[in-house]
Amino acid sequence: MKRKFIALLLTTAVTASVLVGCGGSDDGSTGSESTSGTGAESEEGAASVEDSESSETSSVLKDGKDNVITIVFPGNSSAPGSLEAVEAALTELAKETVDCTVDLNILEWGVYSEQTNLMLSSGEDVDILFNLGTVQTSANSGQILDIAGMAPIYAPETMEMMEQYVKACYVGDALYGFPSYHEFASGTGLVCRTDILEELGTDVASVKTWDDVDGLLAQVKETHPELDVLVPAEVGAGMMKNAFAGTFDILQTNIAGVYADGSQGLTAYNIYASDEFMDVAKLAYDWNQKGYYIADSTTLTDTRQTFLKAGSCFGYVGPIHPGTKTQESINSGCDVTVIPITDCVTGTSNVAGFQYTIPTGSDAPEKALAVLNMIYTNPAAQNLLHYGIEGSDYVEVRDGVAGYPEGVDGTTVGWTNETWLTGNGSIGLAWETDPDNIWAQYEEFNNNATFSPAYGFTFDSANVKTEITAVQNVLDKYTAMIYSGMADPEEAVAQFNSELEAAGMQNIVDEMQSQLDAWSAE
Predict the structure, then answer these.
(1) Distance from first CA to last CA of the chain, Å, rounded?
(2) CA–CA dist 295, 291 (Å, integer)
(3) C-alpha dihedral, 465 to 469 to 471 to 474, nearest 10°
(4) How far is CA 118 from each of CA 126, 298, 465, rounded to the nearest angstrom?
(5) Structural domains in the chain plus CATH codes
(6) Fewer CB within 10 A of the terminal residue: the chain, N end or C end?
(7) Tell me: the pLDDT tens digits for 49-74?
């Protein structure tokens, strides 16, 4: 097994100091250092090579052509008030090294998957696209570029800064994107309104299991019958999808993987044939029968933050991490409390699942990579993407910490975003409701998680593309319905798995097992 790779990742896992200290690990050596000569002659030769490479790179990036670099990512609003100002500020930063104009295309969550699929399949001129868990599928379809050769030339600082996480994103020798720095461990909990918890006198520390959550939700429903107790964490995904997160290290998006706790070694499974999935299906059905869910939960297009902002719900079951409270409070304008329920686990999919990629439709991929490099390594760019315009959307309330300007709050601010969507938020400002050492807390959160036995393995789905398409059609038919408790699980889960098998699920599992066996033997 690739134990050296795993050991390297474990010893350096999610160290905020590595990410914050851009270039701080430089010991004076370079990739052009001679291994066979010493003295002035070899140093001059290395410098000559570096100067030549730098000149060639500059001629591509500073060519006098003002390419529009379109960046596509999801958000709560497609037209925030500060959009044009943020675009202009990012363009000014980018122009220091790249002749370009930055265009931000924010797609709302309810349409993101559908719209990006259309963009990729049509070859639309998009230069940078945030890929939500479908990197391998997009790569196999020829929709995104292999940047393994270009990245060391046009994004060398990002390659160095994100080195340990980039390694988890390779598929063989190919690299299709840069991972977004976020919580690489996954845990699930209840995120809910603080005011209602205080009204009920809830001892948050006593809420530790789904049964405890059940009791709390029953109280909320009785006390506030006018509220939707729970809303979906993700548009269209079903109410309780995240309650199942962390059981498996899912090596093919939403389809198959290995048990994340290592209890079954490197055995690949259809995750929906597991006892754990049935348990979640039964819990979802029970809670739906008790009336905890918003009506039409599988067809809603509004986000959880929209419902929290409107004051029409209590909360949601979703992923949690050290910055969840601030993230949700900023984006909803509502003070929330985060109650962890499940254990945290780390798998390759947690690292490689969310990447900024370069679509094949880009007419300036080298410039796109250079702009992405700027985004990942420039703190000013991170603050722009995360908080907006200094002075109007945020101010630095103390050294290294941002907050709202006087008279501005989460309901009136001109820009909101989530840290995990900005690329590398760890080099930017912390927010005033977070501890000043928030990134150290991310480090602790990730390092204390259970590591999957398949950490470092990436599944190549090329041989089962047809089966994956067929299985995905079945998933689209059943998963949101089951996660929302809309069908008796004793019947629905059996029918679901029958159709999965007919669609080729076992072929996917067998192919994954074959690759895992080969990987473990290396």
Answers:
(1) 5
(2) 9
(3) 180
(4) 11, 22, 18
(5) 64-184+351-453 (3.40.190.10), 189-350 (3.40.190.10)
(6) C
(7) 445 456 678 889 999 999 999 999 99
d(CA 308, CA 328): 9
Structure tokens at 192: 């809910």
Contact 346, 180 (CB under 8 A): no
Q: How far is CA 106 from CA 80, 109, 143, in A?
A: 9, 9, 20
Contact 128, 70 (CB under 8 A): yes
Distance CA 451, CA 11 (A): 12
Task: Kindly tell me the sign of the dihedral angle through the C-alpha atoms of 170, 358, 366, 161.
Answer: negative
Q: Answer yes or no: is pLDDT of 20 > 60.
A: no
> What does the alpha-carbon distance between residue 265 and residue 418 come to, in Å, rounded to a whole number?
35
Q: How far is CA 385 from CA 18, 87, 301, 320, 414, in A?
A: 21, 9, 24, 21, 12
DSSP 228: E
Residue 330: both structure tokens together? 């900023």
With beta carbons less than 8 A apart as the criterion, state whether 269 and 509 touch. Answer: yes
Measure the CA dihedral 54/56/57/60, to 10°. 150
The residue with tokens 């679509």 is 359
- Residue 467: other Cβ atoms inside 10 A: 19
pTM of the model: 0.69
Q: Tell me the pLDDT band of 44, cut-offs 50, 70 and 90.
A: very low
Q: What is the pLDDT of residues 147-200, one digit of tens each?
A: 999 999 999 999 999 887 888 788 888 999 999 988 777 789 999 999 999 999
DSSP secondary structure of 79-126: S-TTHHHHHHHHHHHHTTT--EEEEEEEEEGGGHHHHHHHHHHHT---
